[in-house]
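Moderator note: this is an archived Q&A kept for reference. The question asked for a predicted structure of one protein chain; the sequence and the answer are reproduced below.
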Amino acid sequence: MRNCLFILSLVFTLTAMSQELNCNLVVNAQQTGNENVQIFKTLEKQLQEFINNTKWTNRTIAPQERINASMVINIDDYNSDTFQASIQVQSSRPVFNSSYESPVYNFNDRDFNFQYLEFQNLNYSATQFESNLVSVLAFHVYMILGMNADTFERNGGQTHYEQARTIIGYSQQNNGKGWEPPTGGDQTRSALLDNIMSSTYKEYREVLYNYHRTGLDNMHENPKKGKEIISNTLESFQTMNSRRPNSFILRVFFDAKADEIEEMFTDGPSVDITKLITTLSKIAPMHVSKWRNIDF
């Protein structure tokens, strides 16, 4: 009996150390007027288990290393097994020597139509299409993993982005919305990954690393220096913006970071923000009201 308990405990420990995400997933069906229909509750439970219990990489992950994330699926309409929806995906990463979690990924994916039968099996394949439901969720998982890795190591997310590209490749064959190759001005999954992996926007991933690893993670030792590093890091977006003004990937970055930047430079030790405000107003004008609030 004691041996059985030990084996069960070992299995549980290994399982707990194998998954990468701690994701809170919500299915919001209020728009349909039938939010209490059982299928939505079943879908939410199945997807929550699918995201959190799937082993997405070969790494061994301790429970405290799991990435905190959230996904909110908004169902606009449904008919039998066909659903029209959108999904808001967010993730964060811990800041060294603090209890603070810094937002990293914030993406509103409007092209999320899928088919689902209650209690159907949800299986992910790294190499072949299973369903649009699974493909979209898996794509965002690998974007979360990639961006998170980029904040800890220069270009650390490359393997994850390459898997996201594989998912795009086999999902495009199903002709679903959001997978089509970018044609300019798109705000789709394909456009997002294309931007991240393009040399045109090479500063983006460098900023992810410097902002978090050399800036935020060192603020516990010297908050003023950390803020100065982050300010200088954001300045490097000027080069990218001059090359391709008002890019999609810049909007994605500031959708995640605008509130944090506003709070960071309005509090704590004072640093010269004159140049920073000018830069932010130029490269992220959609958040200009936040930049005007920075008056520390």
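Archived answer notes: Residues 125 and 135 are 9 Å apart (CA to CA).
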